[in-house]
From TrEMBL:
Protein name: carbonic anhydrase
Native species: Ceratitis capitata
One of the record's GO cellular component terms: cytoplasm
Lineage: Eukaryota, Metazoa, Ecdysozoa, Arthropoda, Hexapoda
Gene that this polypeptide is encoded by: CAHZ
Pfam families, alphabetized: Carb_anhydrase (PF00194)
Family matches, as CDD domains: alpha_CA
Residues of the Alpha-carbonic anhydrase domain: 26-282
Keyword annotations: Glycoprotein, Membrane, Metal-binding, Transmembrane, Transmembrane helix, Zinc
Amino acid sequence: MQDFNLNVVWFVTVISCNVFTLTFAKDFAYNGAMGPEHWGEQYSTCSGKHQSPINIDSVNVIRRTYQPLRPKKFESTPQSGEILNNGHTVVVRLEYDEQRPTVSGGPLDGEFVFEQLHFHWGDNDTFGSEDRINNVSFPAELHMVFRNTKYPTFGEAALENNGVAVLAYFYKISKKDNPDYAEFTELLEHVVKPDMVAKFSDPPILWDFINIEFEDYYTYIGSLTTPPCSEHVTWIDFKEPVFISANQIERFRHLYTHDNSPMTHNYRPLQPLNDRNVFSSLPIRAPMATPKNPASAVPFVDNLVGGGATRRPAGISVTATMLVLSIFTVKIAI
């Protein structure tokens, strides 16, 4: 019995540690001995075949029709919100009185609930995004992370196929500040050191961070882009960028990591595509209604004849119309 109890304790400890590393892994960096090229030494999944980020070649994608993506509660005002410097990025955490925002439809199998959002950026405005489009990098990228509602925690969801989805947005530089990012970028000055937290005075809604356009995107199956690099993540990369100013992006680079180094960049290098396909969304078009009486529903188009507007059945040429009018005129003259 004692051996059984010890085995149970060991099993629970292992499971707890696995969940812990999935959500709170800290022993990695973007440079040096703990940089991306060494992640696989401690986290074997980081050496997997289906890793992220990738380069998306728009010529070689497969165009596929999906049901519309269905965001829900993205307009809901959180009860509270805060940002955290976790030593690797800035995380935005939002708490809600009622149901948290969810997304479903598109390439997603099931309903996914919002967990958090965070950012990746580069040393300057010429690169910084993780995924690339046609080998073009963007100055920064936003990851909005969701878990399948089938699983009660993110740690459990990250261990399962179809457990996690990430909505990814690329940033482009605008001349003016994005007002929706005003308080957020101001709060960055209060989380310069790792593990520092700052609260929003006016918690943002999810729409404040992203575009409302939800139809045009690329999607593929990849991984988390930080250790433990769990795979089977559904990525949705929106083609329409979010615009913020160079000044707003610059504030990210003033943060510090756990080793007291400037967090000038935090993007993982590109990973091989291997045997995966990347899909490009095709929205479903509403079917044309079939008229009850086709004979009485011949479409007409406007054409100018003799300086006045007349209407003729579509498909009948102007020459034929003029011929009919000429015959009619001759008969009247006779």
